[in-house]
């Protein structure tokens, strides 16, 4: 079997198509969850704790510290983007935000899987029981012999 025909057989299998659909749906679901996190939950969390995690950082170079001091003295805002331009920083706020996003995303995926498992169990419970298997030829013959002996 040639390389091209092997690849064609692989690419046209149903599993590859199912995987592609799963990746596309997963990407879309990820965007929805990220929007919920960034646009709905994080602002509420920020209001509750009066904290904005995304711009929290620790300067790792004197140039960054000087730029922060200069911005504070002039009253200008100085966020993570400006700090990264000034030099190396430890962006722990970004890490906290991504960790919270992960926990929320994992919880959402857990809830979706839990919902689908419950729905599948409910559907399986509603199915009628399969009919009992037909008797084998041996069983039929033995039943016939039993009935004949019982008549004697």
Which terms summarize this structure?
152 residues, mainly alpha, two-stranded antiparallel sheet, 76% helix, 3% strand, elongated
Describe the 3D structure.
The chain has 152 residues and is an all-alpha fold. The protein is built from 6 helices and 2 strands; from the N terminus they run ααβααβαα. It has helices spanning 3-11, 14-49, 62-74, 80-86, 92-126, 137-151, and strands spanning 58-59, 89-90. A two-stranded antiparallel ribbon has the order 1-2. Helix 2 (14-49) packs across helix 5 (92-126). 5% of the residues are buried.
- Strand elements, count: 2
Side-by-side strand order of the widest sheet: 1-2
- Mass-distribution shape: elongated
User: Given the structure, what is the number of helices?
Assistant: 6
How many strands, what sense, and barrel or not for the largest sheet? Answer: 2 strands, antiparallel
Integer-rounded radius of gyration = 32 Å
Query: What is the string of helix and strand elements?
Result: HHEHHEHH
Low-confidence stretches: none
Could you estimate the helical fraction of the residues in percent?
over 70%
Mean pLDDT across the residues is: 83
**Distance between the ends:** 67 Å
Fraction in beta strands: under 5%
Classification by helices and strands: mainly alpha
Topology:
Layout: H1 3-11, H2 14-49, E1 58-59, H3 62-74, H4 80-86, E2 89-90, H5 92-126, H6 137-151
Antiparallel strand pairs: 1-2
Helix pairs in contact: 2-5
């Amino acid at each position: 079997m040639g390389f091209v025909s092997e690849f064609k057989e692989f690419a046209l299998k149903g599993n590859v198509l199912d995987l592609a659909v799963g990746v596309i749906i997963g990407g879309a679901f990820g965007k929805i969850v990220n929007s919920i996190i960034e646009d709905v939950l994080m602002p509420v969390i920020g209001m509750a704790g009066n904290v904005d995690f995304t711009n929290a950082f620790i300067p790792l170079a004197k140039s960054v510290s000087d730029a922060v001091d200069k911005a504070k003295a002039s009253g200008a805002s100085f966020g993570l983007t400006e700090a990264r331009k000034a030099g190396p920083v430890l962006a722990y706020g970004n890490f906290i935000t991504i960790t919270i996003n992960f926990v929320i995303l994992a919880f959402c995926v857990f809830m979706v899987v839990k919902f689908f498992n419950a729905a599948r169990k409910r559907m399986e419970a509603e199915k009628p029981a399969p009919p009992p298997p037909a008797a084998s030829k041996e069983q039929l013959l033995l039943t016939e012999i039993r009935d004949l002996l019982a008549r004697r």
